[in-house]
Amino acid sequence: MATNRGEFSSRFGFVMAAAGSAVGLGNVWGFPTQAADNGGAAFLFVYLLLALTLAYPTLMAELIIGRHAHANAVSALRLISPGRGTARFGTVTGIYGFIVASLILAFYAIVAGWIIAFFLASACQLLGLDGLADWLTRFGMGRNLLFMALFMLLTIGIISEGVQRGIERWSSRLMPLLLATLLCLVLYVMTLEGAMDGLKVYLLPDFGAALKPGLIIAALGSAFFSLSLGVGTMLIYGSYLTDRENLPVVGSLVTLVDILIAVLAGFLVLPAMYVALHNGVQIFTDSGELISGDSLLFTVLPELFSTMGIAGVIVSMVFFFLMSIAALTSSISMLEVPVAYTIEEHNVGRKKAVFVIGGLIAAASAVILLNFETLFGLTVSFTTRYSQPLLGFVFCLYAGWLWHRDKLLQELRKGNPEVAQGLFWKVWPWHVKFVCPLIILAIFGQALLG
Ligand code: PHE
Question: Taking the model in full, what pTM does it have?
Answer without folding.
Answer: 0.95
